[in-house]
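Protocol step 4 of 5: obtain the predicted structure for the target chain.
Materials: sequence only (see below). No template structures provided, no constraints applied. The aim of this step is simply to have a reference model before the mutagenesis design in step 5. Sequence pasted as it appears in the construct record:
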Amino acid sequence: MSETTCTALDVYKMLPRTNCQKCLLPSCLAFAAAIVSGSKKLKDCPDLDQASIDAFSAKYLRPDNKEVNQAEFIDKLQKKMASVDFESVAPLIGATVKNDTIIINSLGKDFALDRQGNMVSECHIIPWVQAPLLSYITHKSHADITGKWISFREIKGGIEWQGLFARRCEEPLRKLADDNPELLTDLIDLFMGKTIDWYEADIALILYPLPKIPVLICYQAPEGDLQSKLTIFFDECCSINLHIKSIFTLCSGLVQMFAKIAAHHL
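Step 4 output (structure tokens):
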């Protein structure tokens, strides 16, 4: 079951609602919110029996089912590439066309895709990039960058994916930043990012994993008894330019790449 793809109200309705604090949280509502954020599991409530957990679980998608089969997804997208008019689409998505391939810059590196959806690049090919790139090119709608930032849950379909996004993207990146204080700053130089000063955070930087998919990462370091905080925001155009599944794939792939970079001691 996805204990993190339902809403807090869904969880709250099936709880005892006694506010007994056996889960070490102040109320059942707080526990429901923790389930949605991914920091607690249903089994952490000692008053819920397994039958109730199983019945509730059956109503919601498992994360494994929600995360699309990449090979199957890529195959479908590659078939859609044949009908794409590269010359018309390229200026809309910030790409160029050369020798019957469409070229897109991702984090400072050029990736070229042909009409069969095959991807080549002068840099080391990163597997998780292919599906978002294909999805970005074949997406039915395109919009320019607005400069207005929204949270993941505000993207169309984002509420349904919020728990999984927090667990696979924001939380791992927060821990990486905690363990590697220079990581986020170094990412700016490595991936042509830029810092901003209008968001109150220790570090706030913008990266462009795709030309018209700007991502804003805001990190507040731990202080005293306060835990660190990291939030990822998206330009409002992201909701128009890319499907929620591909946005999730893109961000989770980025975090995995950042983890490998951190492991090699930037």
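Step 4 remarks: The chain has three domains: 8-66, 70-138, 149-263. Residues 1 and 55 are 10 Å apart (CA to CA).
Proceed to step 5.
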